[in-house]
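Kinase
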Amino acid sequence: MATAPIEPPQRLVSSLSSDPDSAAQEWLRALPTLVQQRLDAWELTLERVHAPGGRSSLVALVRQQDGTPAALKLPVPGAGSAQQAAALTVWDGWGAVRLLRSDDGSGALLLERLRSAVSLRSLPEAKALLEAAGTVRRLWVPPGAGHPFETVAGRTEDAAEALRTAGANVRAAAPLVDEALELRRALPAGSDEEFLLHGAFRQGKVLAGERAPWLATGPAPVVGERAYDLAALVLDRFEDVMAGSGAAAAARRRVAKLADALEVDRDRLRDWTLYRAVDTGVREVAAGDRQRGELLLEFAAWL
């Protein structure tokens, strides 16, 4: 039985307020009821709703019937909770938060409780990068026969047209956009690796745990080569790199250091990093964050 009011965090409300999708708005209105239904069905006691929380899900801190702490996650419809559940089942707590229960109808996930206020971003940059590399390495496992996950080729193909369209409005970045699109076309065909990847890996998604020092959360799982996953880590906290002296050389050293540490081909990591930097940078500009977007494009140019 709930012991506190169930109210969606303001960050979640704000992130969906501009979404014209009526399904998202309907889900938001029904969210308190959906949470209460899961609490009742799984015999959970609500401690509090986690805030500020994320932009695509509500997380509530709960206790199970035996008093064990856990976290209840309710994602926005279409946010890929089934894929998250499938990936967490494959990892079974190895390098990632452990999935305790899931519900296909609501997309709800019951997860082991981590220290949500303590992520790798709380560490100095060099130490955080080292711990992040060790964590992501654990996640790179075979996806299993008949797996349900999309491939890197499929995911990036779906994004290519959006990049081409958005890039047309950032004329100064036209050469970078052209190079990124060419890399997206060629890179998937150049690798036969088939690892289960986190898909959205960054330091902020690695939280402190009890049974292990650091565990990954919030995957957007995809199957493909490790360099695609590692590229996101190269870009993580890129502002720290750009703020220092010799930033361009430091960016290239980061690529080389991570590639060598995790036995990934340097050139392929460089190419995937350039693609992901351009793709993200152009989308940031299109979304109105021109400063961050242009910094990402400058980072890509250094590579």
